[in-house]
Write a structure and sequence with these properties.
By secondary structure, this protein is α/β, with parallel strands linked by helices. The protein has helices at about 35-45, 75-85, 110-120, 160-170, 185-190, 215-230, 260-280, 300-310, 315-330; strands at about 20-25, 30, 35, 50-55, 95-105, 125-130, 175, 200, 235-240, 285. Helix content is about 35%, strand content about 15%. Helix 5 links the parallel strand 7 (about 175) and strand 8.
């Protein structure tokens, strides 16, 4: 499943001097893969200038006991410990887990406020927001790769929105995963809470699994139109990440031969460039989504592909894409 995870470390590094804040990565232990601090550090040291990173929840390292609503505080404690290790300087100048996005079920309403306050106490220098995945699809294909199945219409749920209102009062952002047909629901949420920064994960995921060329082209058009509408909300930004996920239908995850950056860039470019065109570089940030995107490409080829795709961008645009937007949204100084 993760045959590309360590592929391509010998590729020459494109634009090696560009500082990168990896805006989206995970650390976890799963039956199929174990990927922890040392594993990510090894990837970071492979050549790209990863100055800092944002840890995003993976439903990992939960507390084994106590109230159900508080168990995911264990993940924040874990990530904060990793951040403290990196900040010590013992492992170099890579500020791994400099920002933390935790997990909470916002459907708990006012109870979420207690959780958020506790999270801020546990990681006051790093806790930046919450992610709750909303990915729901009418077909069964995506669920082969998803550990859970969020309910349909989660972002419109009154109970969810009762919890959501607690984010802005604490200066916290909201990350979410949606498939492209759900982007109108995300736009509605952004209208209802204009004071909350909402971060679309993984370019809004245009689902193209098990589709022929015509259906994929139609899906691309639907995705682009939905992204244009979401981008009209100034409180929404987007992560250029997750392109190694199987939901796009690119098929790289089924390959065992080495996949280099040029092949990745050819396939990913229409989605990356369209996303940046729609949102602008100052509302986009690059993320590896590692190790999950290791299904499709190694850490070095992944970043090389992203750099190659935007090779014609100005220096100011590249700075925004690779670190500036993440600095601002997640409040991470370099």
């Amino acid at each position: 499943m993760f045959s590309q995870l360590h592929v391509g470390r010998d590729e020459p590094i494109i634009d090696p001097d560009i500082p990168i804040i990896d805006a989206h990565h995970h650390l976890f232990v799963r039956p199929a893969i174990r990927y922890l601090f040392d594993d990510y550090l090894a990837d970071v040291r492979a050549g790209h200038r990863i100055a800092a990173s944002v840890y995003v929840e993976a439903n990992a390292f939960l507390r084994p006991g106590g109230p159900e609503s508080m168990r995911s505080l264990g993940e924040i404690e874990f990530a904060n410990g990793a951040g403290a290790m990196a900040a010590s300087g013992v492992f170099g100048h890579h500020r791994i887990c400099a920002g933390i996005v935790g997990c909470a079920d916002l459907r708990l309403g006012d109870e979420v406020g207690v959780y958020l306050d506790r999270a801020l106490q546990l990681a006051p220098e790093r806790f930046r927001g919450i992610r709750q995945g909303a990915n729901h699809h009418p077909s069964e294909a995506p669920y082969r790769y998803m550990p859970n199945r969020p309910p349909r219409g989660l972002l419109l749920d009154p109970a969810f929105r009762a919890g959501f209102r607690h984010l802005a009062t604490r200066g916290l952002s909201f990350d979410t995963g949606v498939f492209h047909h759900q982007l109108p629901e995300l736009a509605d949420l952004a209208d209802a809470f204009p004071e909350t920064t909402i971060i679309v994960n993984h370019c809004g995921l245009a689902v193209g699994m098990e589709m022929d060329a015509i259906a994929r082209a139609n899906a691309f058009d639907e995705w682009r139109n939905a992204m244009l509408e979401v981008a009209r909300r100034p409180n929404v930004v987007c992560k250029v990440s997750g392109l190694g996920l199987p939901f796009w239908g690119f098929g790289f995850e089924n390959r065992s031969d080495p996949i280099g950056y040029k092949e990745l860039s050819i396939t990913w470019a229409p989605y990356v460039l369209t996303t940046i065109e729609i949102f602008g570089a100052d509302r986009c940030m690059m993320g590896s989504n590692y190790p999950v995107d290791g299904r499709s490409g190694g850490f070095v080829p992944l970043w090389n592909a992203l750099k190659y795709i935007v090779r014609s961008a100005s220096a100011e645009e590249k700075a925004a894409l690779f670190h500036g937007t993440a600095m601002r949204i997640y409040r991470i100084p370099l």
